[in-house]
Amino acid sequence: MTSRSLFIFALACGLMLAGLATQSGGVIALAIPLMIYFVTGQVARPDTLRITVRRTLSAHKTTPGTPITVTLTLVNTGDRIDEAILADLLPDGLEVIEGDTHTMTALSAGQTVTLQYVVRGARGEYRFGQANIWARDAFALSQRQARVSAPAQLLIVPETSKVKAIDIRPARTHGFAGPIPTRQAGVGSDFLAVRAYQPGDRLRQINWRLSARRSEQALYTNTLEQERIADVGLILDARLARDVRTPSESLFEYSVSATGSLADTFLRAGHRVGLLVYGGGGLMSVYPAYGRFQRQRILQVLGQLTPGHHMFYESLKEIPTRFFAAQSQLVFIGPTDPDDIMPLVTLRARSYSVIVVSPNAITFERPPARSDGQTPAGMPTGMSTETPVQALALRIAQLERAHGLRQLRRRSIQVIDWDVREPFESAATSALLMPIVHQRGGVN
């Protein structure tokens, strides 16, 4: 019974007792309508709820900010319900942009009611579970409540950007045609050298101009450079200690997006790509493979990630290199700390080709210059409000970071120093066009 029902019952009983005590028929007469109202409500109270709810989503996998329509279909398989309230339980992180997550209606036996609303959210995995149902009589004197299971899962994967083909030159390639020049003669598209004609050479490969200029009347054949594919290992830094957060953003989200873009780029080029998530409470991996199905596997793992802490994986020294093929291409994605420099150099010393994508945590965390109307008095418009001590500390941090990245470049490691305020594809294109500095005598 509801509190309203209890109040009416108590009031009717009180009037009845007062009338009997005072032997007043008028007071007893006042209690009779209330008692009739109470009894009628109890007779009409809803029986055991027999309701089924089915949930459907317009898409089960999407990108951040994309509207998703959630539809709940409620079917009453029991008796009539005078007043039914359906309230859906929305997972944390989703935002309703259209419609309502609750509805109130009368339900006849066998009647079907549909509740529909539109949500959107950030990258992550969202699990819909139960919906609350309240059934009340027409007098609102009694109600029944139940939770009905209506499971569904929504995965919001990171949004990727198209990056131009990245020129990688690992020491080891596969025997299949691909985009990496091998400096060996074979089937390819780029000219390599000219040699004397050998029986079996195709006529279209004969260099007729050179052959005509030679006095010995010999034939010469153009040779093409073989192009192969390679193994590419993506290492995403998911350590909570390396994540930088502002009131509205997380630097880890940019690293996840860059990882998805790189996976898409390398897979479109035909390479075999694997993913290792380092930290985040342990290790997660996607075994190296090819094609668009591998892209979906990687994006699914990226969509479920959250940064975390693990005592054993606080240092990059524990990267399991046996997960990657020998002399393959490794790409590390994450903010670089001075403690991370030597472990990355060690990977290069083990004959891996290494690219480091380093989102700039300093510029990400630094607040932007204030606009007109917000600049304190006496300070030029648009100028930063940092104190001299803060400006000096920022300068020292930038120099320390630049020194660490310079150490990586000196060890023949390509570095993408990424200010996340600019698109990743622009930073990757400009950084990878820079020549690699090779240090004589190997890596110290």
What attributes does this structure have?
five-stranded mixed sheet; six-stranded mixed sheet; Immunoglobulin-like; 444 residues; alpha/beta; Rossmann fold
Report what the structure shows.
- The chain has 444 residues and is an alpha/beta fold.
- It has three domains: 51-156, Immunoglobulins (Immunoglobulin-like), CATH 2.60.40.10; 182-228, no CATH class; 231-367 and 385-432, Rossmann fold (3-Layer(aba) Sandwich), CATH 3.40.50.
- Helix content is 28%, strand content 32%.
- The chain is built from nine helices and 18 strands.
- The N and C termini lie far apart (79 Å).
The succession of helices and strands, N to C, reads HHEEEEEEEEEEEHEEHEEHEHEHHEH
Question: Number of domains in the coordinates?
Answer: 3
Overall structural class, as computed from helix and strand content, comes to alpha/beta
**Average pLDDT score:** 80
The N- and C-terminal alpha carbons lie at a distance of 79 Å
Number of helices: 9
The percent range for strand residues is 25-35%
- Please state how the strands of the largest beta sheet are arranged side by side: 15-14-13-16-17-18
Q: Find the count of extended strands (DSSP E, 2+ residues).
A: 18
Q: Give the overall form.
A: elongated
| Main sheet makeup | 6 strands, mixed
Output the CATH topology of the largest domain: Rossmann fold
pLDDT < 50 stretches: 175-189, 370-383, 435-444
Into which percent range does the helicity of residues fall?
A: 25-40%
What is the correct CATH architecture of the largest domain? 3-Layer(aba) Sandwich
User: Any idea what the radius of gyration is?
Assistant: 35 Å
What is the CATH class of the largest domain? Alpha Beta
